[in-house]
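S.,

Sequence below, as promised.
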Amino acid sequence: QIAKLPTPEDPLRDLQTKPSKC
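The prediction came back faster than expected:
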């Protein structure tokens, strides 16, 4: 799975991949 940028389709999924991004 690619997790470079928060995709507009699944912005929540990106948060799960990078919980420390917040």
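Residues 8 and 14 are 10 Å apart (CA to CA).

Coffee later?
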